[in-house]
Amino acid sequence: MNILEIKNLNLSFRLENGLYKTLYDINLSLKEGEIHALVGESGCGKTMTAMSIIKLLPKNAVITDGEIIYKDKNLLTLKENEMRKLRGSDIALIPQDPMTSLNPLYTIGNQLLEVIKKNKSLSPDEAKKKAAEVLSMVKIPSPKEKLSSYPHELSGGMKQRVIIAMALAANAKILIADEPTTALDVTIQAQIMKILCDIKKEFGTSIILISHDLGLVGEYADEISVMYSGRIVEQAPVEEFFRNTLHPYSRALLSALPANTKGEVLKTIDGQPPDIRDCIAGCRFSLRCKKFDENICVIVPQLRDFGNNHYAACHNI
Questions:
Q1: Is the pTM of this model over 0.90?
Q2: Measured between alpha carbons, how far is 108 from 13 in angstroms, rounded to an integer?
Q3: How far apart are alpha carbons 21 and 237 in whole angstroms?
Q4: Are 175 and 92 in contact (CB under 8 A)?
């Protein structure tokens, strides 16, 4: 069952000389208790898609069309005070940079208690007990003692755990994890992802995982949407995607993984993603695609069903 649906989402940026499209007809369903990964190069639209859900977009971003349905409500039509009630309580963000996401002037306990008091009717002692409980859930040692710590006293991995604990304290139904393992070493990355998976299993939490790391996605996600220059170009269950990768861009991303080079020189994708100002007829990957055909690639490819809930947008498949 779907807990969230994005339907035909279109977003543009208002620049000095006009409105430039950034997201094109994004359609995505997040199932209850599953991890849906958004994958692609920097600037492909992953974060803008996710931030549209909680309406925390840059001032010059304009949603021109679409719906985002949660609990039978279109979030895009809600007023700011209504959205404020949902943010953190129903839908929580685990931001990309844990180093700057906590207030350095307040203790971890104070910041957790602020979340708990906002969403629960607990006495001060009960709230403090709850704060220690959620720190324990994210495997922070000596949780009661850590409540009196300031952010600068914690490592990057510990800060990320505290942010996840805040989402747990609010009983969020959906977590948006924006590159949650960035700037963390490999061991800590695995620990953070295990915590997210444990939360998913224990509480049935649904997670949107934003990542450029296909290896990580292959290990932890249930569904995947590959984005390129503002479009979803391939979408499938993760096992099906890795078993039968269809889109040329997806294949290029996979071939660039160190695990797939087998001692050969690391492969790269020629060229650069287009700027949002670039006017490109048809497929926006065409300038970098080895399958480019001038007769058909000038037409925008639509997502087609290739069976097994596997969709791809390419004329040459």
A1: yes
A2: 36
A3: 28
A4: yes
